[in-house]
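Lab meeting minutes (informal)
Scribe: AK
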Amino acid sequence: MKETIKLLLSLQDRDLELDRVRAELAAIPAKISGLKADIQSAKKALEDAKKDLTTLQMAKKQKELDLDAQEASVRKHSTELNSVKTNEAYRALMGEIEKAKQEKSILEDQILQNMEQTDQAQRVWKEKETGAKSHESGLLAQISEWEAKQKALEQALTGKVAERDQALAALPKNLAEQYGRLRGGKRTGAAVVPIRNEQCTGCHMKLSQNIINEVRRGQKLMSCENCSRIVYLEEAETPAIKQ
């Protein structure tokens, strides 16, 4: 039975290694997608910063045009004052001049505020633009590393599958089927586990004394009554059989 257990453990080691490699491979696409998403997010942030700057610049230009219009209105109405013939017309023009001056004052304040906002937006955009290339370069380097690792794991997987098939072929058919059923169920991890402190190390339930005695006799393979895993004694454990 010791040789049979060794064959089972050899197969199981390969299966557990395949589990690890496959899990690593399965996780890589998400990591690459996350890095690509970071690149797109950084690009969008840069584009948004540029749009904010452009919007403020356009708004400033429009307000400057509006300011020019109000200044022109003040000049026009001021000139017209020299040709009015009635007090009523004079007061009306003065009202228009005052209104234009108020609008002009508001626009001047808005332009000053807009200039501050534009300066801030310009700094934000420049900062993002400066860091964008190096940030993207770093992310692309990480993507290349993950893609290289993915390729290496895929190549390694082929060899590991072949090793696993060889280990499986060394088992008797009925034992290979039993092992396959254990591995193929919902249970994950090891299908062949050692006994420690009279417990199955797979499910951590206490084994019956009969099972333990049979394992120690080494005449046949025994399974845990609770989880059905094949159980064995490690080489270092050689106590006497309890009667």
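Next up, CB showed the second protein from the same session:
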Amino acid sequence: MKKLILTFAIAGFFMQAHAQNLRGIDIPISVTTSFDQAYPSILADWSKDGDNFEAKYKADSLNNTVTYNSSGTLIETNTEIMEAALPVPVMAYLNENYKDQKVNEISKITTANGIVTYETKIKGMDLTFDSSGKYVKTVMN
């Protein structure tokens, strides 16, 4: 019985060590350092999008994504927001053009240099609006 417990303990240790090493191998230390400095108490799920790295996490039950380049420089943040946080012109546009459609997701995207856009997802489409709420474009998914 002691051997069985010892075997499971050793296996668990190696699995944990392997999981930590995967993060270090897949994501440059400059990226994780930048994220940890900006979000010291947040645990994130990491993925790679082309040459960039995305940290996904939840805060206040809302989805958030932070994107960095391989040198750890912030590219953008993407924060899920509630409908009430959208600029009024966005809601007017949606009510006029998509009144019978359900908005599935709403995000506020802020680039590293402070440019804010809003994105809404509606039935296979991503609609983008500028910081004042003016319609910019639609991308089909």
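CB comment: Confidence is low (pLDDT under 50) at residues 2-24.
No objections, moving on.
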